[in-house]
Amino acid sequence: MHEFSKEAVCRVPVNSLKNFKDFPFRILEDESMAELVSSVKEFGVITPLTVIPADDGSFEIISGHRRKRACQLAGISEVPVIIKHLSRDKAIILMVDSNLQRESLLPSEKARAYKMRNDAIKRSVGRPSVDEQGESEPGKTIDRMAENAGESATKIQRYIRFNNLVPELLDYVDTRKMGEMVAYHLSFLTPEEQNSVAVTIDSEQAFPSVSQAQRMKKSSKDKELNEDLILQIMSERKKPESFNVIIPIDKLKKYFPKAVSPKEIEEKLLALCERLYQQQQAKKRANER
After folding, report:
1. How many Å apart are CA 93 and CA 113, to the nearest integer?
2. What span, in angstroms and rounded, lies between the C-alpha atoms of 197 and 23?
3. Which residue among 154, 164, 165, 242 has the highest number of C-beta atoms inside a 10 angstrom radius?
């Protein structure tokens, strides 16, 4: 049992801390972690970790998983913590909200985190409405997450659907080999149908387009989808589709100040592209004279 009955700030042994149950985010030992290790060696842990007491006398981390790992790597034995006493669902909501602002989150991480938070809120305030196709309509729970995460309610719903993908297809989304809209439509297929799609992707060395994924979704709903139809759909010539260019934020960091938001980065990149385009047009006109 813990001696702390109220919220308290204190120091506890690092080995008394354990990760939040079903923690949906990666803890990478990358360059950023190396910088954090160097920082805690020199200055210690400046921001206390947020934890909740566990039944076995340890503490479960809500916020500060990376700081805990950095302390382990730095050989630090004690850390400052804020001990909170929360219900399980409130702890889940706070844990997700505290970690969603990380950079370079994988779609699978967002999918698990959004689902955990959505399920916790539904247990607290009731279920959102569902349309006749079994797709959740944007409700209060999704809207709240959208406000906290800075993403649209529709996009969060799509991420939550990714929890219905088989591991092979979800991995294609994480590695950006398959588009998110394709994955969203494939998430409505049965696991057996999805496995057949994964086998066809491997054998054909090609991914379905959005329109092809939509056709598979409809055929699955009509109980008509099978291996032969999946191959037939994927063998058809793809229609030209719009696409997104995705540049990892880590590759852009050195070109912009830390305070610049992703929206400002997008605007600056578009302005740069416009200048390059105008220069090319000017050079073209000069050559035509």
Report:
1. 9
2. 29
3. 165
| Residues sharing a CB contact under 8 Å with residue 42, sequence separation 6 or more, in sequence order | none
Determine the Cα–Cα distance for residues 162 and 171; give it in Å rounded to an integer. 11
Helix, strand, or coil (residue 81): strand
Give me the amino acid identity at 12.
V
Rg, the chain, Cα only: 24
Residue owning tokens 């997450």: 145
pLDDT (tens digit per residue) in 182-219: 999 999 999 999 999 999 999 999 999 999 999 999 99
Point out which residues pair with 49 in neighbouring strands: 81
Lookup: tokens for 212: 């092809």
Closest CA to 266 of 245, 280, 284: 245
Please state, in angstroms and rounded to a whole number, the distance separating the CA atoms of residues 268 and 262.
10
Report which residue type is found at 289. R
Whole-prediction pTM value? 0.71
Give 271's Cβ-side CA count (13 Å radius): 6
Q: The tokens 């079994």 sit on which residue? A: 134
Phi, psi of 53, deg, nearest 5: -70, 140
What are 261's two structure tokens?
Answer: 């938001």
Strand order in the sheet with 59-63: 8-13, 78-83, 49-53, 59-63, 17-18
For residues 113, 247, 244, 139, the Cα torsion angle rounded to the nearest 10 degrees is: 20
